[in-house]
Amino acid sequence: MTDRAAFDKDTTTDEVLQGIDLTGKTVVITGGTSGLGQESARVMAGKGAKVVITGRNMDKARAVADEIDGDVTVEELELGSFDSIKSFAQRLLANHPKIDILINNAGVMACPYAETSDGFELQFGSNHLGHFLMTQLLMPALGEGSRVVSLSSAAHQFAPVMFDDIGFKSTDYDKWAAYGQSKTANSLFAIGLNKRLQSKGSEAFSVHPGVIETELARHMTEEDMEMFAAGIESGAIPVKTVPQGAATQVYAATAPELAGKGGAYLADVQIAPMEEGTEDFSKVRPYAVDEEAAERLWIVSEEMISQSGKS
Q1: Around Cβ 276, how many Cβ atoms within 10 Å?
Q2: Any idea which residues carry the catalytic annotation?
């Protein structure tokens, strides 16, 4: 029998789900065509769940689904387009009126300045606003016992949400600050969402998966790669395998011992301790779990969506 209290950075997805049956559960995973999303789909389908993975390239998504042993279907979704999100939500709700687990896994990291089709800075627009709108549209399907898991990151330590200039309109664009802001937003979103889900008996969590070699790094420059390589070599940046990296999000989605602890930020398959100014990847900075900031972000996000003219 697995000692669940002993879960740590080396724990894998299969270990997290040992003894857990997901038969009859519907799981939706954004960005399920590679890396952590694909691994989460594999292990959860293997436990009997009906899994829906999203992707932008449908040929690739279908190929991934075909490789997984279990009930896995695919849906097209572009998180940088509100129109795509709305179409996706409409299709999904028509086919899956009840969603038990939603894992907001997709993301873009450290890319050059770009904007979504609705005019928002790409990293904040896709990583946060896209998932914010999508989750709101799917809320009718989230009922008693359901969970929403948003992928944050230790990169939240790079920047809080810069409410005075979220879109870098008057500030020089810094791709890592923009990524950090979006990851702080993912954590704060879980807090705001959890508050709004409580009456439904549903909960929300955010997680730091760890540093893993996935397609998320596709925008990194040679200089970025050298910096990370030096950090890995020195031991300052701990690296995980994909099954270890996906373990925390699968744990947040399924662990019975997390019931009643919604809003928490998890790392290394446990609730992360909070520490001011920390650079420890297993800890969370206070600004990323601040309830007032979470409420402010919710209000600002709703305003941004409505101002796009496509809400």
Answers
A1: 8
A2: 173
Distance of alpha carbon 54 from alpha carbon 73, whole angstroms: 9
What's the pLDDT tens digit per position in 192-201? 999 999 999 9
Q: For the chain, what percentages of helix, strand and coil (3-state, to nearest 5) are there?
A: 50, 15, 35
Structural domains for the chain: 4-307 (3.40.50.720)
Query: Alpha-carbon dihedral of residues 276, 278, 284, 287, nearest 10 degrees?
Result: 40
Q: Rg of the chain's alpha carbons, rounded to an integer?
A: 18
Which neighbouring-strand residues pair with 53? 29, 74
| Residue 148, C-beta contacts closer than 8 angstroms, at least 6 positions apart | 101, 102, 103, 104, 135, 142, 190, 193, 197, 202, 203, 204, 205
- Residues 63/138, Cβ–Cβ less than 8 Å: no
What are the residues whose beta carbons fall under 8 Å from the beta carbon of 195, sequence distance 6 or more? 263, 294
- What's the length of the chain? 311
As given in the structure block, the two tokens for residue 120 are 């928002």
Summarize pLDDT for 12-56 with one digit per residue, the tens: 999 999 999 999 999 999 999 999 999 999 999 999 999 999 999
- Smallest CA-to-CA distance from 28 within 122, 133, 135, 107 is with 135
279: Cα within 13 Å, side-chain hemisphere: 3
Burial class (CB in 10 A: 0-12, 13-18, 19+), 70: middle
Both tokens of 143, joined, read 């009922």
Q: Which of 275, 212, 269, 216 is nearest to 241 (CA)?
A: 212
Distance of alpha carbon 187 from alpha carbon 265, whole angstroms:
7
